Structures are given as structure tokens and as C-alpha cells.
Amino acid sequence: MDLDAYFHDELEDHARVLSDTRAQLQGPFKEMLNAWETCIRKGGKLLFFGNGGSASDAQHLSAELVVRFVSNRAPIASIALNTDTSAITAGGNDLGYDQIFARQIEALGKPGDVAVGLSTSGTSPNIVAALKMARDKGLVATAFTGRDGGVLPDLADPLLIVPATSTRRIQEMHITLGHMLCGALEQSLELV
């Protein structure tokens, strides 16, 4: 292995995806921020959910909003559905893994809340089911994804589709865009 080449190739690939993301997602980013801001201003909450690395991102972004991102400020109502191990394991056992987030949205979501699914492929059955439930219950169904968007273009609006095929590059942009949204939300709500 040529470690120097690997180091430079990885950073070059990251820079390419960053450049493509900058060129393609400014409009959808503004739409996502508007959905989040409208929800919070009306007393709603953001419900994040994902699997694996996307679960970590969901939990991370929710914590940034509930606790703080840039400065001390009032909390922003948010929850990561993938952090409740009892609900996840009971739902997986009793209803099937594809229903673990849909069931929580059915129980906790209210019209006007924003469901935020994270799926690098856009085809994760439990993310798809949760977004369908969100729409059925009157939530705003939104998502972060990559590749060609999978089935999420028909389920989520706004939708951030990172223009990449590599899971790691998609996740890198998800957390970058998520951080940007947290910062922009704090500013738009004048909490900074």
C-alpha cells in the first residue's frame, strides 16, 4: 500500500464530493432549513432516525439542537428515535425491524413536526416505512440520502441527495450539512 497516495486520494475524493455538494444542494438546503424553522416556530419538534453510521448522525444532530451547537441558548425540540433501545428491540421483535421507527413516529409525531430520515442508500426499509408513516400522520417527511436517492424522492420533501456513491463520502456530507443546518437554525431563530 502506498500510504501517501491513499492519504491524498481520499482527501481529493472528499474535496470532489464537497464541491459537487456545494454546486447541487444549496436550494434543497434552504428548503430543509425552512422546514425545520417553520416547525420549531410553531412549537413542533424534529424527529431524527437512521441505521448504523446514520443512527450516530441522527443522535449527534439531535443532541446539537437540544443542548447547544454554537452558543448557550434555549433548547430546540428534537429527538433521535434510534436511541431508545427498549422501543427498538420491542418493535423489532414484536412488529419487525422495518417498523421500529414508524411505530415511534405513530406514537410521538404530531402534524407539523418534521421527520428527518438518514439513509445513505435511500432504500432502508425502516426509513421508508417511517417516512410513509410521517406523511400519513401529517408530519413533514424529510431526508438525507445519497447515490440516486433510492425511493426517497417519492417520500421526502425536502430531500438532500449527496452526489456520491461511496457510503463514507455520503456520511461525511450528511454530518457537514447537518452541522450547517444546526448553525443556520440557531441564527434564523435568533438564538445565537
Describe the overall structure.
The protein has 192 residues and is of the alpha/beta class. It has helices at residues 3-24, 26-41, 53-66, 85-94, 100-108, 125-136, 167-188; strands at residues 46-50, 78-80, 114-118, 140-146, 159-162. A five-stranded parallel beta sheet has the order 2-1-3-4-5. Strand 3, helix 6 and strand 4 form a beta-alpha-beta unit. Helix 2 (26-41) crosses helix 7, helix 4 crosses helix 5 (100-108) and helix 5 runs parallel beside helix 6. The N and C termini lie far apart (47 Å). The model has no long low-confidence stretch (mean pLDDT 97).
**Global morphology:** globular
Quaternary structure: single chain
Largest sheet: 5 strands, parallel
Tell me the radius of gyration: 17 Å
Strand order of the largest sheet: 2-1-3-4-5
Q: Per DSSP, what share of the residues sits in E-state strands of 2 or more residues?
A: 5-15%
Through-space gap between termini: 47 Å
* Average of the residue pLDDT scores: 97
Class per helix and strand makeup: alpha/beta
**Could you name the ranges where pLDDT drops below 50 across 5 or more consecutive residues?**
none
Give the tally of β-strands: 5
* H and E string: HHEHEHHEHEEH
Instruction: Give me the number of helical elements.
Output: 7
Tell me roughly what share of residues is in helical segments.
40-55%
How do you describe this structure in short?
By secondary structure, this protein is α/β, with parallel strands linked by helices. It has helices at residues 3-24, 26-41, 53-66, 85-94, 100-108, 125-136, 167-188, and strands spanning 46-50, 78-80, 114-118, 140-146, 159-162.
